[in-house]
Amino acid sequence: MEKIRISKIMAQQGLCSRREADSYIERGWVRVDGEVVSELGSKAWPHQKITLERQAQRRQTARVTILLHKPVGYVSGQAEQGYRNAASLILATNRYRGDHTAISFDPMHLRGLAPAGRLDIDSTGLLVLTQDGRIARQLVGDDSEVEKEYLVRVQGKISHNGLAMLNYGLSMDGAALRPAKVSWQNDDQLHFLLREGKKRQIRRMCEMVGLKVVGLKRVRMGNVVLGDLPPGKWRYLKENERFV
Question: Which of the two ends of the chain, N or C, has the fewest CB atoms closer than 10 A to its terminal CB?
Answer without folding.
Answer: N
